Amino acid sequence: MISMILQSAAALIMSLTQPNGDAVPDFSRVGYRWGDKEIPEYKVVKTIEAPADGSDATELIQDAIDGMRKKGAILLKEGIYNVSGTIHLNKSFVVLRGESKRTVINATGTEQRTLIMLGDKIKRVKENKRSSICAEYTPVGQMYVEVEHPEKFSIGDHVLVCYDINDQWIHDIKMDQIPMSSSGNTIQWDVSMFKFTWERIVTDIDINKVYFDNPIVQGLDPKYGNAYVQTCTTPRIFDSGIENMTLTTDYDPSVTAARTSGYKKGQVYQSDENHAWTAIVAYGAEHSWIRNVDSRHFAFGLAHMHHLSKNITIEGCNCYSPKSVIRGSRRYAFHVSGGELHLFKDCTCEFDRHGFATGAKAAGPSVYLNCTLKDYEQDVGPHLKWATGFLYDNVVTDGPLAVQDGTNGGNGHGWRGANFYLWNCTAEYIVCQSPWASAKNYAVGCVGVHKRGMGYKKNSDRPKGVWVSEGVHVEPKSLYLYQLEERKKNNIKVIR
């Protein structure tokens, strides 16, 4: 029986391959150490206690981090640590660990800021080793590209797969024809906005084929632009983590507003925004983690994977009770904007506008696994401007789940996501549209009312995504776990 299930699983995945060769990417190579190693348990090398008088603990915590000279964990004993600034966890091999969820780091004051920065603001250096991709078409899911000058690269190189698209691409996906919004601020897409990059590591070179640690997640078609590979250096921190604590922020509970639209129209809620904005931002960090962390009252969210973040695992985290007005750029509990190769696992949030969302040009693959949004404000799914290669695996929401053309939302969100996979997800209703050209989106084994469009006028005529087993879950239950188990069974490690 098990063998038959595995055979049917493989057959199901293979059946999603498109005539142009686009196939289901291997999503198992995301998160800490690509899933090849467990998150380590560091030995406690420092212990600190919360000030008994409630005084500011910013320097207490920061000095403990800055003073670390070896690998290990800083243990914060149970208590409340009031923090008036931002804590910078900007060293490799350092873990900030709470004794329990009763270890509370509380952001004080009225400044809109990040409470904890994992990593640091860094710059990527693009190097001069570069070669054009020479294939007639490089399909989604492929683990290599064909280049004109493979001799320019070596195994272990960190490279960017770059795709500078042209006017034809924008025209064919009709993003030069976005209807003007009532506010008149809609911006048609322009080639200057879209220079895509996906960071990879070279794992092998065979004749003119350069192999990578992770798959291609956007088909590279010469008719739509110039594609090439270029080496780079990115000085991130690594092997650091935040775990086992609660993060909160002060806010003014007397500041309220009433909802002016939507299914909760008229309901009064707490809308103060003069307080800390985001619990944790990862910026310039890789192979690190956030686990067993709760947050309360932040306006944006718990974990924002920002610029040059990579291979972060966010596990067992819960984002509760956000405090903000209900409009754009707020309530994105678990968000990916400038990072890639992230794994969100067993995370929950509530009262969020876009609980598990992606920003413009977010570079996959990344995975949301077994994640839940309750008491929704808006939809779950990609949010704006062509994010690529994400897996929503057993994601559950009591509201809508949507991969679609956002048309003139914001200043012209347009096609929100490309080559997205919704796998055994459950929602009140589901929208899965495919762009007019250049990519497809997939809904496999998803349960919920199927809608052609949502939230935007005149977007229900968009091409239907690829729907399989509509309304009935499929095997394997989890695509990510199936691919990971298959890789481990065959002893395939990302970096040997």
Question: Which properties best describe this structure?
Answer:
single chain, 496 residues, mainly beta, 20-stranded parallel beta sheet, seven-stranded parallel beta sheet, 4 helices, globular
Indicate the mean pLDDT.
Answer: 96
Note the beta-strand portion.
Answer: 35-45%
**Main beta sheet, described?**
20 strands, parallel
Q: How large, in whole angstroms, is the Cα Rg? A: 22 Å
Number of helical elements? 4
Helical content band: under 10%
Ends: how far apart? 33 Å
- Stretches with pLDDT under 50, minimum 5 residues: none
Instruction: Give the overall silhouette.
Output: globular
Structural class: mainly beta
Please count the beta strands (DSSP E, at least 2 residues each).
Answer: 38
Provide a descriptive summary of the structure in words.
- The strands form 5 sheets. The chain has a 20-stranded parallel β-sheet that branches. The chain has a 7-stranded parallel β-sheet with strand order 4-7-18-20-23-26-29.
- It has 4 helices and 38 strands.
- The longest helix has 14 residues, at 2-15.
- The protein is mainly beta and 496 residues long.
The gist of it:
This protein has 496 residues and is mostly beta strands. Strand 1, helix 2 (58-66) and strand 2 form a beta-alpha-beta unit.
Topology:
Layout: H1 2-15, E1 44-48, H2 58-66, E2 72-76, E3 79-83, E4 87-89, E5 94-98, E6 103-107, E7 114-119, E8 125-132, E9 144-146, E10 158-165, H3 167-172, E11 195-206, E12 209-212, E13 225-233, E14 237-238, E15 241-249, E16 256-258, E17 268-270, E18 278-283, E19 285-296, E20 301-305, E21 310-315, E22 318-320, E23 334-336, E24 343-345, E25 348-350, E26 356-358, E27 363-369, E28 372-374, E29 381-382, E30 387-393, E31 396-397, E32 400-403, E33 417-418, E34 421-423, E35 426-432, E36 442-444, E37 447-451, E38 466-468, H4 479-489
Parallel strand pairs: 1-2, 2-5, 3-6, 4-7, 5-15, 6-15, 7-18, 14-19, 15-19, 18-20, 19-21, 19-22, 20-23, 21-24, 22-25, 23-26, 24-27, 25-28, 26-29, 27-30, 28-31, 30-33, 30-34, 32-35, 34-36, 35-37, 36-38
Antiparallel strand pairs: 8-13, 9-12, 10-11, 10-13, 11-12, 16-17
